[in-house]
Amino acid sequence: MRNRWLIALSAVGIHISIGSVYAWSVLTRPIMNEMGFSLGQTTWTFSLAILFLGFSAGLLGSFVEKAGPKKSGLIAMTFFGTGMLGTAYALSVQSLALLYLFYGVIGGIGLGVGYITPVSTLVKYFPDHRGFATGLAIMGFGFAALIAGPVMQYLTATVGLVNNFLILGCVYMVVMGASALYLKPPVLKDSHGRVTHVQRGVTANEALKTWQFASLWWVFFVNITCGIGLLAVASPMAQEVIGMDAAAAASMVGIIGVFNGGGRIVWSTISDYLGRGRVYMLFFLLEVVAFWQLAGTREAFVFEMLVLLIISCYGGGFSCMPAYLSDIFGTRQLSAIHGRILTAWGLAGVAGPSIVSYFHAQTGGYTASLYFFACCFVLNFIIAAVLKQYGLRKDMASHSAL
Length: 402
Known about the structure:
83% helix
């Protein structure tokens, strides 16, 4: 049997590699300057990657479940590594279409498969601390930009944009490959101590037909839409609304990365003690207040504290979800069910920035979008309360443990 802490380290290895996608903004200016692409053309690359992350996770979740974590991890490595190396080629020939294909589509598929691959396995090694286990892996995805951002900046300045992708592509393939090769499901035993391959829970298709799944998909979609909408404009909004200078705004974005990653492990660990239902209710109550207050504040300190609170809840929403899904639907096809849920992320990655852009174009500011997000979380709180009260049905309660 594998050491569960090394399994956790392997999960972090995969997530910290693919999580480098969150550092894309560091490369936006260099790509625009060298390639002559517009801001819209360049940022659409990131949106495509998130879109394909969500939909590949949804479509390939059942495949990941059948193939097992080792094969799935190696497939994720192949797609993500090919995406990085192909991006280097696309930039070398200054092709926008190839940039979209390699980084957005091929790399995005690697992101989706890589994201769900280790989570189901890790949950099975920590049956009594599922929140902590999933938070540990998904924390790596949130923190990745803190490492990748400065490294990308340094490599781009010293060896150039193309070589940056070549070097990182090779490094990520080594890390992901080594991590995938160690991943292996635990040996399960029945009540008599006999080895068994039976895992309790419903199938992905059965889960998809329940109101619980629809409710979780919606609250996940709203949480990401509002969070990613705020992330997309955090720096310019800080400069426009409270007069923060560019350097201070950039510093705030770095701190946001800490709270995004830290929120994932802290909130998911808390959920092991409070319960997932209560934690999601707390998320949405805090976000109603925070978004509403953010719309009216003009004080820099208050502004920053509210943004960081929202981002910690945004990160926590990601890490608590796999554990919540296993509580309700069991671990039998957790990767497949988690993959279906992640389609919300793909759509939210487009919806969030679009909503903020629309309200900004209509009103010339951010206040209307922030009030809109606050209202969205009122509905989310109600749905979360219903889930807390009625989500763990009697016919599913037996599936909530291995």
